[in-house]
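<purpose> Linking amino acid order to shape
<body> The protein record starts here
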Amino acid sequence: MSTMDDKKSTVYAKLREITTLTVDGHVKTVKAYQPRPEEIDLLEDYILITFSTSGDKPLYDIEGEIVIQNSQMRIDLWGLTSLDTTALLTEVESKMREIKFLLEDTYDIGDPKGYAHKVCIFNF
């Protein structure tokens, strides 16, 4: 590998495969975006995934060629309840594993508007 590989488009395509989610007997629409805070107010209509690259570290050989690229993605899951984000985490983890991104950590974040917000860190 002589140039860095941008994995963001691969992650975006994989996350967009999750279009609906059944939570507590209700089918909910799921949307994936790169971070767009204006979308957070629309959670009454759907569950939201936002994501960003949180680390991209190449390792070089002695000739200066990239031999390994370690990538990290931060994926935020937003919903009206923790049932939404927990169910969505199961789907997201499965999709990310398909493209060799493994879940490293996940934690809940308090939201001043009362939304359920879970942050997930995936490494490639």
Summary: The chain has a mean pLDDT of 84. Residues 8-123 form a domain with the STM4215-like fold (CATH 3.30.2000.10). Strands lie at 20-23, 26-33, 46-60, 66-79, 102-109, 116-123. The radius of gyration is 16 Å.
